[in-house]
Amino acid sequence: MISENIKEVFEKINRDRFVVGLDINDLFAQVSYCKVDSDAPTTLSLSEESEEFNVPLFMLKRRDDGAWLFGNEAREAEDDGVLVNNLFERARLKKTVRIDREEYLAKDIFLLFLKKVLLLFPAMVTPDKIVSITITLKDADSDTILMLQELPNMLKVNPDILHFVTYEESFFYYMLYQPAELQNHNILLFDTSGEKLRSYSLMRNFFKSPGVATVDVKEYINFPSETPVQYEKGERDAMFLKISSELCNSTIYSGVYLIGQCFYSDWAVESLQFLCKGRKVFKGNNLFSKGACFAAKEKMSPSGKENKIKYLGNDRLKVTIGIETDDVPKEQIPLIEAGSQWFESVGRCELVLKETDKISIYLAYVYNNYVAHGELTLTGLNTSNNRITRVSLEVKMISEDTVSFKVWDMGFGELYPSSGKDWEQELKLEG
């Protein structure tokens, strides 16, 4: 009987599948995970005795055996090798790192760091059991996304399970899974996990169906996360009280979240008293990774929660971009759809051009139903003598409001060989 029960337990463990949320910023990485059928993520801790969720962004190659150490272990072993810091920034800037006589790409060391962090999972959470990973970032750009898309290959998992959200959207997904009393009202979040204080105001509008959620972000450059020595007693509390009252006096919030170690010291006295009046106040350090975990869960198997309210953020495109054919009537073929995240938005197609060096494009804006029409001119493309040319077109968002068009001359078989030319044009989208 005991053996049968043990067998059932192991069979259940083998059937379990997991979703993962990964928070990455300039200072640390943090991981939360849960079973697909669970609404209670667990955040990986470096210590069994305390909630030590943040893995500092350090790597070190030990001189005596060439082993790579990471996080606190790397920092503590600084005398045994070359400590590499500012990993995320260096990787984003495509820098190299010199360790003794060897040169490394910062990107490769950073991805190795992430792989080591993800190997901290309990034994039952193996890569083949992970069905969805969402990475959340404070600021996202296409180069960073492209770099992080190499992570699935290192983990030997399907690249299609990897997704990205900003901190704003991670906040939205976290609140999507909170109790009913926090679902219908505006929520305020203060984050001190970076160098400067940031506020995130989650605003919900249920006058539309489905409802719409937006997040307004403000950064306070005069309020550093680390307490400067020159602060007088009570001065920092007064500054935070001023910031809090300005936000809360203009908008009604039913809940406030305070993120970062900064809030675990006793400097905030009057400001906390103010925030607790008529509002629920929560402290924590793992909201964004848990929000990313909930996002991974929704992207893998939608729960229906987003049928009631949709997130509309700055990273979401407000325009559909595509090409128009010369047929009568003209046909519009979308390559990038409105509503998608700009940093994941890319579309490709091949076209056959006959005696023309122009490609017709259109931009359909969703907020005012305005459709703009234009042309890409392939200067120098041979269009004479009934010439037919096949071109490859890539449309890619390179920022929140800028789209890049790249075209390559592919030729048309042996009859019209490729000229080897390519063209690139950027276009600023309307606000």
Layout of helices and strands:
Blueprint: H1 2-15, E1 18-24, E2 28-35, E3 42-43, E4 55-56, E5 59-62, E6 68-70, H2 71-76, E7 81-84, H3 87-92, E8 96-99, E9 102-105, H4 106-118, E10 130-137, H5 142-148, H6 151-155, E11 162-166, H7 167-176, E12 186-191, E13 196-205, E14 211-224, H8 235-250, E15 253-259, H9 270-275, E16 280-284, H10 287-300, E17 309-311, E18 319-324, E19 332-336, E20 346-354, E21 358-365, E22 371-377, E23 388-399, E24 402-411, E25 422-428
Parallel strand pairs: 1-10, 10-11, 12-15, 14-17, 15-16
Antiparallel strand pairs: 1-2, 2-3, 2-4, 5-6, 5-7, 8-9, 12-13, 13-14, 18-19, 18-21, 20-23, 21-22, 23-24, 24-25
Summary, kept brief:
The chain is an alpha+beta fold and 431 residues long. It is built from 10 helices and 25 strands. The strands form 6 sheets. Strands 1, 2, 3, 4, 10 and 11 form a 6-stranded mixed beta sheet that branches. The chain has a 6-stranded mixed beta sheet with strand order 16-15-12-13-14-17.
Describe it for me?
It is a single chain. With 431 residues, the chain is α+β, with helices and mostly antiparallel strands. It has three domains: 74 residues, no CATH class; 143 residues, ATPase, nucleotide binding domain (Nucleotidyltransferase, domain 5, 2-Layer Sandwich), CATH 3.30.420.40; 110 residues, Sandwich (Substrate Binding Domain Of DNAk, Chain A, domain 1). Helix content is 23%, strand content 37%. The strands form six sheets. Strands 1, 2, 3, 4, 10 and 11 form a six-stranded mixed beta sheet that branches. Strands 16-15-12-13-14-17 form a six-stranded mixed beta sheet. β23 and β24 form a beta hairpin. α7 crosses α10. It is globular.
